[in-house]
Model the fold of this input.
Amino acid sequence: DLRRGKPSAHRAFSTDTHSETIGHGLGIMLGDMLATASVDIADKAASKLTYGSNVVAALLNMHREVEVGQVLDLAVELNPLNDPNELVEASLNVFRWKTASYTTIAPLEFGMLAAGLSKDDARRRALAVGLPLGLAFQLADDLLDVVGSSRNTGKPVGGDIREGKRTVLLADAINAADDGQRRELIDMWEADSRSETQVQRAIELFGQTGAIAQSRNRIADLWHASKSAINALDLSEYRKSTLVEACARFVPDVRANA
Done:
């Protein structure tokens, strides 16, 4: 309901039209219009580049990957909670397609293509740097959902818990929980809704089971993988450090020199 500290499009439309149905429909259509507009903007910008057609092709591929990710995001909610390892794998797969595709992989690919790299080289290098970075970014975003604040994130704290989303954080908590904690978590997520008291209890359990610490470790490991991929690029030390600095912004809790 809240994005960047303001009502999401579907929420604002619902308020203005006094209709949840119309508001949600308009929100979806606005997304369609903006997706089309992004292609038009990219096409006009790419027309000025020597290898512009490759950039547009990469943009369209990015659109397809995000669409696959949205489907997978819905499908992961069907994953049983009694197999946390499978849930981790499915969730990370969603992160790759739904988030990393447009947040980190494609932007790197655009830059490399615009600089004249071949399609295959640009794709390979963008994946090497952008895939672990994109996964780390989404893990960090999910972590902020339980340890951040609405003032800093612009989103409601505990939003994923209220929605009953199956996340890596939840899977790690279930995996490390004792029998009582595991039953409590599964019962909460299998219920139709969760009260504010239950949201706070879930956050408490995430801490007690070590799931929050585990997420931080995952993020650090992925950041190291991304940084290693940057260091393997055929760039000057100055350009490598510039790229490391830019990529580190996606994982602000991890220092660039970590």
Observations:
- The chain is about 75% helix and 0% strand.
